[in-house]
């Protein structure tokens, strides 16, 4: 019988998280949601920093321990915990962990199978390694930011999805799991250099392949997937809201044209006719409110969807029926993904005491360290 409460697919994976903001807690939250036993080590000033950032939900689902990493005794206790883990993940600038006495050489000597994940913006080496930056800066150097937006206008910032979370957290999780699989198979522990600029660039693999093949114009809104094609774009509706059209394949375009009901549209196969086609579609969608258009195309393969706000998305029937969101403290929160049939995401986190027992770490640490339980 599977224990539905404590049987996520990462059950038994032991992770120590060095407290940070943004992609590191997101990566560790995902691993905890999927069953990993995660303990977050907080520095004394981290709690106020987290409160100020408004990122409480990213820190839920695993217990936290407050440490003074300037104290040799607390550093020794951190090393004891990490010696019992399979993964440690940190997001400091290069050299900070070494100065704290928690660098990879020392920790791999304590625990030769350890996977030491270092998440930064620019990586552990290179001319920008020691520089500050944020998602927008990393994405700017990949070519991705240049490619998003309308022609002749400024690039559009895609929130912090691409650098922090897509190029950072997800690649860090992948690196952690790949390293653990290798170590469990007999390979030595190792350092994983998870740089957001690397991951965000890798996400552009198809775009760069198309550019190299002469099938991508290196300018905004000039291609199939960047809003350049009128059959893959957004349109303003009569109520000031927007509708998204993604009728790429011929069969979906045929379904779109049939349902739209506008005769004598220009051929979409002739890019010289795209401005005329876009003008016709713009005028059509401007004639009715967004939700009327959504209802009009419902049940078809025309690939037409309403552009929802965050609040609307959490209330949309397709999202609520699939339980894409859950309610936490009266507010919608995204549910863990992906979904596993036999080992579903955990329903409750392990407590600090449970983790110390399972890891074989001395129980007196639970009393000596200033522990604060973080719940969902």
Provide an overview of this structure.
The chain has 16 helices and 12 strands. The chain is of the alpha/beta class. It has a 7-stranded mixed beta sheet, sandwiched between helices. The chain has a 3-stranded antiparallel beta sheet with strand order 7-8-9, with helices on one face. The two termini are 25 Å apart.
Helix content: 25-40%
Q: What general outline do the C-alpha atoms trace?
A: elongated
Strand tally: 12
Number of helices: 16
Q: Spans with pLDDT under 50 lasting ≥5 residues?
A: 1-5
How confident overall, as mean pLDDT?
91
What's the Cα radius of gyration? Answer: 24 Å
Largest sheet: 7 strands, mixed
Strand order of the largest sheet: 6-5-4-1-2-3-12
Helix and strand pattern: EHEHEHEHHEHHEHHEEHHHEHHEEHHE
| First-last Cα distance | 25 Å
Category by helix and strand content = alpha/beta
Show the helix and strand layout.
Elements: E1 14-18, H1 23-33, E2 37-43, H2 46-53, E3 64-67, H3 72-83, E4 87-90, H4 96-99, H5 104-110, E5 115-120, H6 135-142, H7 161-184, E6 190-195, H8 196-202, H9 205-212, E7 232-236, E8 242-246, H10 250-260, H11 274-285, H12 290-297, E9 304-306, H13 310-315, H14 317-321, E10 325-328, E11 331-334, H15 352-359, H16 364-368, E12 370-372
Parallel strand pairs: 1-2, 1-4, 2-3, 4-5, 5-6
Antiparallel strand pairs: 3-12, 7-8, 8-9, 10-11
Helix pairs in contact: 1-7, 6-7, 6-8, 7-8
């Amino acid at each position: 019988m599977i224990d539905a409460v404590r049987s996520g697919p990462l059950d038994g994976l032991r992770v120590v998280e060095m407290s940070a903001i943004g992609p590191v807690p997101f990566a560790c939250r995902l691993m905890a949601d999927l069953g990993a036993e995660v303990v977050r080590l907080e520095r004394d000033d981290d709690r106020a920093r987290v409160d100020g950032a408004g990122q409480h939900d990213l820190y839920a689902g695993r217990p936290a321990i407050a440490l003074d990493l300037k104290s040799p005794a607390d550093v020794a206790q951190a090393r004891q915990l990490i010696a019992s883990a399979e993964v440690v993940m940190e997001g400091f600038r290069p050299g900070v962990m070494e100065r704290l006495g928690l660098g990879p050489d020392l920790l791999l000597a304590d625990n030769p199978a350890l996977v030491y994940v270092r998440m930064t913006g620019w990586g552990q080496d290179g001319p920008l390694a020691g520089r500050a930056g944020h998602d927008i800066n990393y994405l700017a150097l990949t070519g991705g930011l240049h490619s998003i937006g309308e022609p002749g206008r400024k690039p559009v910032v895609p929130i912090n999805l691409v650098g922090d979370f897509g190029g950072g957290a997800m690649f860090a999780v992948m690196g952690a799991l790949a390293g653990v699989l290798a170590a469990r198979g007999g390979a030595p522990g190792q350092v994983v250099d998870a740089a957001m600029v690397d991951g965000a660039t890798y996400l552009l693999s198809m775009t760069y392949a198309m550019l190299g093949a002469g099938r991508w114009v290196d300018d905004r809104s000039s291609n199939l997937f960047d809003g350049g094609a009128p059959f893959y774009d957004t349109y303003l509706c009569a109520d000031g809201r927007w509708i998204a059209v993604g009728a790429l394949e011929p069969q979906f375009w045929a379904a779109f044209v049939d349902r739209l009901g506008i005769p004598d549209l220009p051929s979409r196969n002739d890019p010289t006719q795209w401005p005329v086609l876009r003008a016709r579609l713009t005028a059509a969608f401007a004639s009715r409110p967004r939700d009327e258009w959504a209802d009009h195309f419902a049940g078809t393969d025309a690939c037409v969807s309403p552009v929802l706000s965050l609040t609307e998305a959490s209330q949309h029937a397709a999202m609520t029926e699939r339980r894409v969101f859950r309610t936490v403290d009266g507010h919608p929160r995204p549910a863990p993904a992906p979904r596993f049939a036999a080992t579903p995401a955990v329903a409750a986190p392990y407590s600090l005491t449970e983790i110390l027992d399972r890891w074989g770490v001395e129980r007196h640490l639970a009393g000596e360290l200033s522990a604060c339980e973080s719940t969902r």
